[in-house]
Amino acid sequence: MSNEQLVQFLIELAEWRIKDEKLFRVLRFKDFNKAIEFMNQVAITAEAMDHHPEWSNVYNKVEIYLVTHSEGGITQLDIDLAREIDSHFSTFKL
């Protein structure tokens, strides 16, 4: 993906940024249970896409990194998963 394409996607995916050459986002939830519920929903989507995030959870915070290792960088697959993650997140009451 070219830098120009990536810049356009980052405008659309306003909460995402580039960190360590990967797409990155931090999400905060009401509590631990909501964070885990969210991760479970995203896990189903990621498995269906055969594209899995690098992520971690500490209490109500989930940090997510997206990159396509086989391609050596950010690809359309990462953008698509970021959109899905944003869609899941929009359904949670904070």
From TrEMBL:
Its EC number is 4.2.1.96. Signal peptide: none annotated. Pfam families: Pterin_4a (PF01329). GO terms for molecular function: 4-alpha-hydroxytetrahydrobiopterin dehydratase activity. It is an enzyme of class 4 (lyase). Keywords: Lyase. It catalyses: (4aS,6R)-4a-hydroxy-L-erythro-5,6,7,8-tetrahydrobiopterin = (6R)-L-erythro-6,7-dihydrobiopterin + H2O. HAMAP family: Pterin_4_alpha (MF_00434). Belongs to the pterin-4-alpha-carbinolamine dehydratase family. This is Putative pterin-4-alpha-carbinolamine dehydratase. It comes from Candidatus Pseudothioglobus singularis PS1.
